[in-house]
Structure formats: structure tokens, C-alpha cells
Amino acid sequence: MNTRLNTADFNQALLNFLDQSPTPFHAVASIAARLDQAGFMSLKESDPWVLQPGQGYYTTRNGSSIIAWRQPVEAQGFAAGLRLTGAHTDSPCLKVKPQPELLRQGYFQLGVEVYGGVLLNPWFDRDLSLAGRVTVRQSSGQLSSHLIDFKKPIAVIPSLAIHLDREANAARSINAQTYLPPILGQATEKPDFRALLQQKLLAEQVDVAAVLDYELAFYDCQKAALVGLDDALVCSARLDNLLSCFIGLQALIESRPGNGQVLICNDHEEVGSASACGAQGPMLTQWLDRVLPADCNRYAVLANSLFVSADNAHGIHPNFADRHDDNHGPRLNQGPVIKINSNQRYASNSETSARFRDLAYRAGVPVQSFVVRSDQGCGSTIGPIVATETGIPTVDVGVPQFAMHSIRETAGAEDAIGLTRILMELYQS
């Protein structure tokens, strides 16, 4: 069992990472900063690569997806296959529309578009901030992109008082077009949102002649925290799936150089992964083209590899236990979960599950199983996509959590470090 990790330090670093990563762009920047500190080297996709044995590298795409890896120590190290962990950087949220300005009843609001399968009710009456990426024209005429984060409450989506909606607690459907535009303040004329972004960037000493475009999302200002009388729970926004990104990152950094060790964190999983930087796009296969030696047997390398698709699982909720199969209700702080679906919504099979169980045994970490009720539909992950695109043997796993796709989610404080220890065994295998 690997005991190098300290639970208290691990969870504090996790909380910091969650708070620093309000959007996929910020998450990738946070991951890159930690890789820099660990001695990994940044490579641009547009440059030629000269790779050294045992050295760690990373490359990004769209600023929202990242692949980090260590080259094998031995020249023939690829023959043993790759050890890959995959996760996703995006989370369901409310994104600002291109022409968002609204002035209604004297209130300045922004039109928003629902991204992914958002649980909408929890977004009401929260202190919201705004973050993302802004692309500008500089005074020289050149284009540049910058991360932006207001870092303080600038908006709210107020609920309608129960006096005006007596059925609110019994039945309330949410119209995403009319109910969700956040209020940013009061105004007598419609403000220019791009001008507001320009003022924000200028205040941060960014050269901005004009704001050309942006990708911005609202997020909850409440900080990530340990919760419970014994701090047994982690509560935060975006646990699905930044929790898995952090787990994979820590496992890679803490592992000793060996055979091919890979972490890939893709954007756009919550909307189907079909993009240039999504798991269904060519990012991973193009990376394989560049990294695998020309004289290796590519198909043998992939056949000898193992891909661990890490995406959170549904923990059994004590108030809704009937929503789970009686024998497959994972509990928080009882170990990571192998996710299984006979209709291939998850890519786990008996052999890849057994390999994961063996890694967990070596790490001294318990493992649970999840199968959706036979009368319910099943979600999916990047696991089946990667398995289909590459042929790499794949297992779907995840840390159990409550309130998936809510603005604030809950997981166990012991499970993340447990899965990290298993992935360290993966990288050393």
C-alpha cells in the first residue's frame, strides 16, 4: 500500500484546486501550474517535439483540454503498453449568450444558455460570479485571449416568492429562457456587456482595444469545504468531474517514472464529447501518432494498455435509497466505484474490472460496484468513446457522490485519496 499521501494535505490541495477552477479554462491552467511545479515541460501542438526518456510533458488544446504524460524510462518501455487515466474538465452550468444584455423592469440582466444536464433549482438565490475566456484585439491590432474571473458575487437569480406561486413546493417547472437570466444590478439604460469586460481587463493591465468574443459561465461563489461533524464530506461546485481531474493529476505527479504514464482531461463531456478537444475528437489519437515510436507495433502497444475512465458515480442517497438497485448502492467513504452496464454505456468488462480490483488490492483500498436499476436509463462517460476510438481496454470508475449536476455537490473526504492510491498503482504497473 502506498502511504506517501497525507489525507489532510491532499484534501486541502483539492479544495484549493476546486476554488481556482471555475471553468474548464481555469481548470487546465490550474493543472498546468501544478505540472510546472512538478517539473513537467509544456509543449505546443504547433511545435516539433523532441522527447526524452523519463521526462514529464503536457500539451493543451483550446485551453480547456490537456494531456500530461511521462515518457518511458527504457527505450522499449512502450512495449508494456500505456497506463492512462481520463477525466473531463467541464461541468453543467449557465453560459452567457453572445448578445446577452437585457433591461427588464429597471434591472440589468444577462441572457444565459444552459450547458449540459443542469439541475436548475439549486441555481436560484445563490451568490454568483462570472469567469471564462475573453478574446481581444490589442492596440497593436494583434489578437490575444485571456482568462477572466470576477471572483466576487456580481449576480443572483432570485426565486419567485411562494406567495406568488403556491404550488412551488409541489410542482414547479423552470423555463430556461425566461426564469434564469441573472440580475446584475439596476439600470435606466441597457449597459454594453463587452465594454464592461473591457473595463475589467484594463483594470488588470491587459492591453485591450476591443473585446471581440468570449466564453463565460456563471458559478457559485461559495468556497469548497469539508463538511460534517468529523469533516467526512467534501462539498463544492464542479466535483463532477474536477474531482477526477485532481485525482489523476496527483497520481501522475506522485508516481515514479516508469512505463508510459498518461493523464488526459477533455472538455465537452457533458454535451457529448463531439469537438476538436472532446474525447470523441482526434486529440488522443493525434497524440498517439506523435508520441509512439515509429518502429513500435502500435496495435500491440494499445492492446497491452489500460485506460481508466474516471468520472464520479451516484452514491446511494439516504433519503432516496429506492432509486438504486438494492445490491449496487455505493456509499460515500467506502471506496471508489466500478461502473458496469451491459448495454455498453460504461466500458468496463470482467477483465478490465478485475485488473482494477487487483490494483485496488495492492493499494489497500476497498472497491464498490454500481449498476443502474433495470427500470432506469443509464448515463455514460468518455470510457466507451475512448474504447471505441482506440481499442484500448477500458474500465469505468468513479468516486461516489450526491447531487450530481447540482450547483453544489457532495463526495466523501476519504474516497478521492483512495482512488489516487489506486491510480498510482496503475502508473507503477
Automatic annotation (TrEMBL):
Xref: Pfam families: Peptidase_M18
SUPFAM superfamilies, per the entry: Aminopeptidase/glucanase lid domain, Zn-dependent exopeptidases
InterPro entries according to UniProt: Peptidase_M18 (IPR001948), Peptidase_M18_dom2 (IPR023358)
Recorded superkingdom: Bacteria
Keyword Cell membrane: no
EC numbers on record: 3.4.11.-
Enzyme class: hydrolase
GO biological process: proteolysis
Alphabetized GO MF terms: aminopeptidase activity; metallopeptidase activity; zinc ion binding
Keyword annotations: Aminopeptidase, Hydrolase, Metal-binding, Metalloprotease, Protease, Zinc
Cofactor: Zn(2+)
Any one cellular-component term (Gene Ontology): cytoplasm
Keyword Metal-binding in record: yes
Record NCBIfam families: PRK02813.1
UniProt family annotation: Belongs to the peptidase M18 family.
This protein's name: M18 family aminopeptidase
Organism: Nitrincola lacisaponensis
